[in-house]
Write a structure and sequence with these properties.
This protein is an alpha/beta fold and about 375 residues long. It has 2 domains: about 240 residues, P-loop containing nucleotide triphosphate hydrolases (Rossmann fold); about 110 residues, Rossmann fold. It is built from 14 helices and 18 strands. The strands form 4 sheets. The protein has a 6-stranded mixed beta sheet, with helices on both faces. Strands 1, 2, 3, 5 and 6 form a 5-stranded antiparallel beta sheet that branches. Strands 16-15-14-17-18 form a 5-stranded parallel beta sheet, with helices on both faces. α5 crosses α6 and α13 packs parallel to α14. The longest helix has 18 residues. The radius of gyration is 27 Å and the shape is elongated. The termini are far apart.
């Protein structure tokens, strides 16, 4: 590998082999993280994501290869040199005794304090700024041991931030966080990347967040790095299904969502939907164990991938084309065999006019017809 390429990356692993003791787990790992970039490891539980991160930060010894930090092999760097450049937020729970949250965050300043570890006014301001950034200053005097898991995660992120790193390593940083605090944490992380050009290497289980947040994805499958690429290259429904060995239910890369398995059997309900209106009904019927049919849906409609996952039958039409008469007839035959019709639409456009005819057909057959599903 050319030296100029190595130094273009803030974090770079060269032919790294990781494992436990002398037993290799994953070989030939090459990860590149530039400043101002988020690189995310994904893969099933036990695939080796945490092992890779622990090896990068030297919690585990390398079996082979090297890790470079800002162009320098980390094995040649002192601990304080590393701490001034890189901070870490791992999944291991820490148990400091008789320490306030402000005390815990203050430990992030140790690379900059003297031997006695005495904080200057500048250090104290950076501690407060970091805690305010993660919306945790109100916890400053609270005993760290009394915090909830989510509050602890915010405090530990503040500690990592006040270390003023040029790189941050995070292992499942959204663990224990509710939706609000997940979004806040990742927004803060993205802002650090954007404004301070921090290099971020992390692992995530939430595929929807990894897809939206990351600049680059590294796929770990337990014995090797199976694939690397941009989110657009990695997040296809077929590949994610293969990587995670999904055999029940489905994953939809277009929407970043998981769906349960469809209910088998002849459809009992016909759902006329589109433009997202049918999705809540599809999921409700699936939860209730009722097989249903959906149509007529254009194949570029947002309802279509969810209907394909959950419906016993889907009647579809090509994108941007008016619904053809033969497509309508096929949908009408299925509708007639169902005991209930649910129409989720109140307006019908030119391309969708035959769905109005389907709705009228369902109403006129005196079936259990519902225009405004609850």
């Amino acid at each position: 590998m050319a030296d100029d390429y190595i130094y273009d990356d803030y974090i770079y692993t060269e032919n790294m082999t990781v494992g436990y003791g002398k037993v290799p787990l994953i070989r030939q790992i090459e990860i590149h993280v530039k400043r101002g970039e988020i690189v995310t490891l994904i893969g099933p539980n036990g695939a080796g994501k945490s092992t890779i991160l622990r090896s990068v930060i030297r919690q585990l010894g390398l079996i082979g290869g090297a890790v470079y930090l800002d162009g320098t092999p980390m094995e040649h760097m002192q601990e304080k040199q590393i701490a001034k450049r890189m901070s870490v937020l791992m999944t291991e729970r820490i148990h400091p005794e008789l320490m306030t949250c402000e005390d815990v965050v203050s430990t992030g300043r140790y690379p900059y304090t003297g031997r006695m570890g005495i904080l200057s006014e500048k250090d104290r301001k950076k501690v407060r700024d970091a805690m305010e950034l993660v919306h945790a200053w109100e916890l400053a005097q609270k005993d760290f041991g009394e915090l909830s898991d989510g509050q602890r995660q915010r405090i530990l992120l503040a500690r990592a931030i006040c270390q003023e790193p040029e790189a941050i390593i995070l292992d499942e940083p959204t663990s224990f966080l509710d939706i609000r605090h997940k979004l806040e944490l990742l927004t803060i992380l993205k802002e650090l990347v954007r404004t301070r050009k921090v290099a971020v290497l992390m692992s995530l289980h939430e595929l929807d967040l990894a897809q939206k947040l990351s600049d680059y994805i590294v796929c770990v499958n337990g014995t090797s790095i199976e694939r690397c690429g941009t989110p657009e290259e990695i997040f296809t429904s077929a590949y994610i299904k293969k990587l995670y060995g999904i055999t029940q239910g489905s994953y939809h890369a277009e929407l970043g969502c998981l769906e349960m398995e469809q209910v088998k059997g002849a459809p009992k309900v016909f759902v006329i939907g589109g433009n997202g209106s049918g999705i809540p009904i599809y999921r409700r019927l699936q939860r209730q164990g009722i097989p249903f049919a959906a149509g007529v849906l254009h194949e570029n409609d947002i309802d279509y991938p969810i209907a394909k996952a959950l419906a016993a039958e889907v009647v579809s039409e090509k994108p941007f084309e008016p619904i053809r008469e033969d497509t309508y007839e096929r949908a009408a035959e299925i509708l007639k065999s169902c005991s209930q019709v649910i129409c989720c639409l109140s307006d019908f456009g030119t391309m969708n006019e035959k769905n109005r005819r389907l709705a009228i057909l369902g109403r006129n057959r005196n079936q259990n017809f519902c225009e405004k599903p609850k």
